[in-house]
Design brief:
The protein is of the alpha+beta class and 92 residues long. Helix content is 35%, strand content 34%. The N and C termini lie far apart (27 Å).
């Protein structure tokens, strides 16, 4: 089991979404606690970055995170719409 750290700004943004949508986003994030590694579907590694960065697809949103295996820690660093993510990282 991994510990999940979410940047405070991300938590605040999710909190402002409609209740059902926010619950779905939180559920997706919590799934990273049990298995943060790429599965080829919702979770993928971003290629071309200096360190390993991963993307979690959650409906029309994307979470970006890093994994600290040694400390069993997943740190969520970005929360973007799919379109923002495509502009920043390209289509994965």
């Amino acid at each position: 089991m991994f510990k999940l750290l979410v940047e405070i700004g991300i938590s605040e943004r999710i909190h402002n979404y409609p209740k059902k949508e926010a619950e779905n986003l939180k559920r997706k994030l919590k799934s990273l606690k049990t298995d943060p590694f790429p599965d080829g579907k919702d979770k993928k590694e971003i290629k071309g970055t200096a360190k390993s960065v991963y993307r979690l697809r959650a409906a029309s949103y994307r979470f970006f995170y890093v994994i600290d295996i040694e400390n069993k820690l997943v740190k969520v660093t970005e929360f973007l719409t799919a379109e923002q993510a495509h502009r920043k990282y390209g289509r994965i």
